[in-house]
Amino acid sequence: MLRIDPTGYKRALRERRASSDPRFASGVWRLLELLPSLPADSVVTLGEGNVPLYDSPRGASYAGVDGLAYLHLGMNPTGSFKDLGMTVAVSAAKAAGARGVACASTGNTASSMAAYAARAGLPAYALIPRGRISKAKLAQILDYGAHIVEVDGSFDDAFAKLASIEGDLAIVNSTNPYRIEGQKCAAFMMLEARGWRVPEWVAVPGGNLGNSTAIGRGFREALALGLIDRLPRLAVVQAAGAAPFARAFETGEDLLPLVPQTRASAIAVGSPKSWRASLHEVRASDGVVLAVDDDAIDDAKGAIGREGIGCEPASAATLAGIRALRRSGVVGANADVVAVLTGHVLKDADASLRIHEGFRSDAHAAV
Ligand code: F0G
What we know:
Elements: H1 6-16, E1 53-55, H2 57-63, E2 67-72, H3 82-95, E3 100-104, H4 108-120, E4 124-129, H5 135-143, E5 147-151, H6 155-162, E6 169-171, H7 177-183, H8 185-193, E7 201-205, H9 210-224, E8 233-239, H10 244-251, H11 275-284, E9 288-292, H12 294-306, H13 313-327, E10 336-341, H14 349-355
Parallel strand pairs: 2-10, 3-4, 3-6, 4-5, 7-8, 7-10, 8-9
Antiparallel strand pairs: 1-2
The structure holds ligand F0G.
């Protein structure tokens, strides 16, 4: 197990921001010692991981808590948190001499894969559920030059098709351990931005459950390294129409796959692959899993937008989830919470237009 001097490591992380090593322009690769070791010339980076932590006084009062901030992972190069894991997964694929990369996706994984594969000069194959991904994500995948395979059905059907793909391709879904290693860095980014003060709760949206697994692991590693002295509690928030994990958490039984139905298309996953690993993290942190309905997600998305921040619907599930947990008394009024926003507002413009349907151009507005 890696041993570090916590104070020295915190200083080294600050100093690396000023380094001319191109890897250290990345908030992921600055944490080099915590990542799988790969040859420096295999590293494929777009400068991911330099994301803001936004204080949100209005979000705090919306949720009914004392302190709320957003770690906005939608501010990554392709507009979602996937870049944190993809930089490591595509670098590892390049180092291993893979002939290409492939994934199944509700859109963000595929956009990110397409961009990093393009940087690496590797062909990429995106299996997407036909008609169920946002236009912006489809547009990105096309722009970055990936091959698109449309599959009838949901994300889960696309994922099942992956097994039949032939050729020496690296699968870069979050079942790929390199993805988790990269995404765990979000925990360190959050802590560093807070001066290593641990929040009481961290809310994360849950779909295929790779991200909650990764972030939970990141906090546990930070604890084991002596960078922090306790763990935050994880709240994994699913959309009510795609909440098999929330149900399994409630019943204590195995997860029962379902056909997902939610307007938060990014997290429309009925058979999440990492549910056991995510459950391990939720339990280790004394956390919870819950579901919020699409109307609550829309309402929270509106609130995040009106504060000048904005995000895609799946991300807004976090604020809706914190509000619900405050109402049920699980989260206390004086809680200090960080919500992880996973996707940029422009990832799903149709969702914004739907929420604000019926808006009128106001010729008489005082401008
Ligand atoms: N938020 C956004 C914006 C997402 O795109 C996803 C997953 C999640 C949250 C959930 O994260 O799956 O690790 O639990 N998107 C995947 C994709 C399914 O294909 O882009 P998770």
